[in-house]
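[SOLVED] Predicted holo structure with zinc ion

Edit: marking solved, answer below. Original request kept for reference. I posted the sequence and ligand SMILES and asked for the 3D complex as structure tokens.
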Amino acid sequence: MGSPNGFENGSVSGGGECSAAFTGGGSGSSSLIFLGTGCSSAVPNARCLIQPSDPPCTVCAQSLSLPPERNPNYRCNTSLLIEFCQDDGVHSYILIDVGKTFREQVLRWFTHHKIPQVDSIILTHEHADAVLGLDDIRVVQPFSVTNDIDPTPVYLTQYAMDSIALKFPYLLKKKLKEGEELRRVAQLDWKIIESDPGKTFTTLGLEFVPLPVIHGEDYISLGFLFGRKSRVAYISDVSRFPASTEKLISKSGAGQLDLLILDTLYKDNSHNTHFCFPQTLDAVKRICPKQALLIGMTHEFDHHRDNMFLAEWSKREGIPVQLAHDGLRMFVDL
Ligand SMILES: [Zn+2]
Ligand SMILES: [Zn+2]
């Protein structure tokens, strides 16, 4: 795998794989599978196709000529699947976020990477692009016409819980009322976590440190720090880092990350609720991880063109950074 900086993003075919500086892969390895690397409206942006600009948006137009699995500019809502290989060799699957495009992500990437189920779910926050696929979780659970299965744990803040109780009341209900028909729905076991790095939680043997970040000045979203052997931070929705959070993931603070996965929305300027490219690259420089992959991109980003720019930037700054793409699997020792 000889791409610059150790990333295998150059030729996308059936997802692409990357072992980079981590492990060699194979059945005994943990891996990170990027189920989605796009913004809330996803890419292509539907408006670009039904009301094309003049000249047309080349990134969105690609979706009409290239199948999604060979189009790194086809981006679903941000979501990461952690395939965790435990010490006994058992593989379990931890899903971060279940957005509007979850079903499409299952159809495309669970089949390609042979993922049979989801064992645990973690939510960063309760926005539509992080939770509106929760209804479809039933397709990644065992089948039972009587809902008689072990519920899948979902880790989320109380704030997110209150919002989901309004969006999906039927996913919280326990007992049927008198005369009410049984209907098959996802079986979920809600587990409240705190927006506090001191309050870590463990699911399926993997410990997670919540990383509170500002996502618009009136809102806290969570990133997560995980991995005992390789330290990985996943931060999908951020407009500003509180100093205490940044310290936990910085080389100059709690120690250098092996991998930083970080939000970037637009190419230029700034945005009130997300990092854009300039703020993302500034943050990468300050945090100084061994490697970084960017997610959450709009149609302003062209995968190949902007990764060429990033290859130059990486050489100059000494930190390998690339745009991730949907389907990318990175083998990593967790
Ligand atoms: Zn477009
Ligand atoms: Zn959000």
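OP edit: The two ends are 21 Å apart (CA to CA). Thanks to everyone who chimed in.
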